[in-house]
Amino acid sequence: MERIYDFKALGNKGSEVDFAQFEGKVLLIVNTASKCGFTPQYDDLEALWNKYKDRGLQVIGFPCDQFGHQEPGSDEEIAEFCRINHGVTFPLMQKIEVNGPDAHPIYKYLKAQKGFQGFGKGPKAAMMKMVMKKVDPDFENNSEIKWNFTKFLISKDGSRIERFAPTISMKTVEQAIEEML
């Protein structure tokens, strides 16, 4: 049976990252974009990384350009944008696809483990539901990533995976991190 630790991905500078090195840590894997309404979440992700990395949290960003062409830059441009504008120090991977036939194997695995959990409540959630119904009337019944900044939280032993839409409060994400740590 596959586990998250069986995968490898390329870091944003081209070096291979073996996820086996993260066994025993709580992983927060996020598909990111630099020109999205949710881009300010980089600040929240960096704050979570700084607050919990010494307790075993590993944040990993996977830039993706599949949603509204909101990540057009090269891997180098993305890393520089994140560093300058959001002080990002957590690892960024090479830009990937998260849906479709060319989806990265890590995302195929994550989506198979944990389907869409909803957008939650509030105005941003209502807006996302409206947008998604136009794009994919069956969006609630498939596991595809719906937008940038979808988060997967994986327990230290890889046995538990939680999924958070970009509209879910970062306080909710932080509470889940604390429970897993």
**Relative strand content:** 15-25%
Assign a percent range to the helix content. Answer: 25-40%
- Sketch the topology as an H/E string, one letter per element: EEEHEHHHEEH
Characterize the overall form.
globular
Cα-to-Cα separation, first versus last residue: 24 Å
* Overall number of strands: 6
Query: How many strands, which pairing sense, and closed or not: the largest β-sheet?
Result: 4 strands, mixed
**Side-by-side strand order of the widest sheet:** 4-3-5-6
Global Rg: 15 Å
User: Number of helix segments?
Assistant: 5
Q: Spans with pLDDT under 50 lasting ≥5 residues?
A: none
Structural class: alpha+beta
Mean pLDDT: 96
Question: How would you describe this structure to a colleague?
Answer:
The protein has 181 residues and is an alpha+beta fold. The chain is 31% helix and 15% strand. The protein contains five helices and six strands. The strands form two sheets. A four-stranded mixed beta sheet has the order 4-3-5-6, with helices on one face. Strands 1-2 form a two-stranded antiparallel sheet. The chain is globular and about 40 Å long. The chain starts with 7 loop residues before the first strand and ends with a helix.
Task: Provide a brief overview of the structure.
The protein is of the alpha+beta class and 181 residues long. The chain has five helices and six strands.
Relevant terms:
alpha+beta; 181 residues; two-stranded antiparallel ribbon
